[in-house]
Input
Amino acid sequence: MTETKRVQVEEHILSINDELAAGLRSRLDAAGVFAINLMASPGGGKTSLILRTVEALKDDLRLAAVDGDVVPVDVEKIATQGIQVELINTGGSCHLEAHMLSPALDRIDLDAVDLLIVENVGNLICPASFQLGTHANVVIASIPEGDDKPYKYPTMFRGADVLLLNKIDYLAVQEFDIDYFRRGVEALNEGLTFFPVSCRTGEGLEAWYDWLREQVRKTTAGSAEARELVQGS
Amino acid sequence: MHELGITEQLLDLTLEHAARAQATRVTRLNLVIGELSSVVDESIQFYWEIMAKDSIAAQAELHFERVPGRLCCLACQAEFGFSAFEGQCPQCGGAQVKVVDGDQFRLDSIEIENEVDQ
Output
């Protein structure tokens, strides 16, 4: 006899991804790695920011990068800076998911890395929904995209821990109401870390590098403390 | 495209719960999707028909309960729809708001059939 019934599930649809992401977070933490998930529209400046950041920090910190893309163009650019960079071929998918990041982490010696930069697929909608296990969501917006982006893509801006407003050198030639832009972001995400920068001229980037150095310092201190606790017990 | 990844996970989640309940067939999914969670119903339905094809959930009907986005002003507590949001509270001009509804992205329940002894 066939019986029909309703089964309560009440789970977040992406709970499988979220669980995998939590596992990746544990791996990163155990290795003392601070990892960021870098998101922006295509052309927002993700690769430019990575190139600048690597150039500025590679002598002080041990860096690695993972790039979600379909072609290795950006990977090759980043590799010229002499750091390990792994391509995740997304096969045209519009975002990274935790299960895609996992095999890329397998190829990196995480114990020898302080800062891992994960470059997500260029898109302001989808990547925001998929946790990767990284420690901070870093979103880049840029002046040519217009000041209304926080109103059009609230999920992305709401989930950001750090926001970089790139290409501020364009303010000389383009109308852009920074107050209106920031109001849209801060209304739903008060007190997020905000850096107006130009990856072309280098303006404002020192504050961003300092922020990264500080996060790495805290992570390293935290994992040393954790190791002492384990050894001491 | 992002509905493809979502549909994949939705199918896995559905089959996991169906197996636990020893279902022989899944007939319906009740989904609760908020306005702020940017997914397209038709697109999930479309991918579902392809991806669930060889599973016990192939014939399942996907039912979407849509929840409108609602915000609340932290200063005057006024509630208003997400579409009225222009960076500040439409009542008092307050600059800080929070989401009170519309960010759901949940599989609420599934309806299944199973074989039982007489």
In short: The beta strands of chain A are 2-12, 34-40, 63-69, 84-89, 115-119, 136-142, 162-166, 193-196. Residues 65 and 117 of chain A are 5 Å apart (CA to CA). Chain A has a mean pLDDT of 91. The interface with chain B takes residues 1-17, 92-95, 97, 123, 125-126, 129-130, 150-151, 154-155, 158, 180, 183-184, 186-188, 190 of chain A (CB under 8 Å).
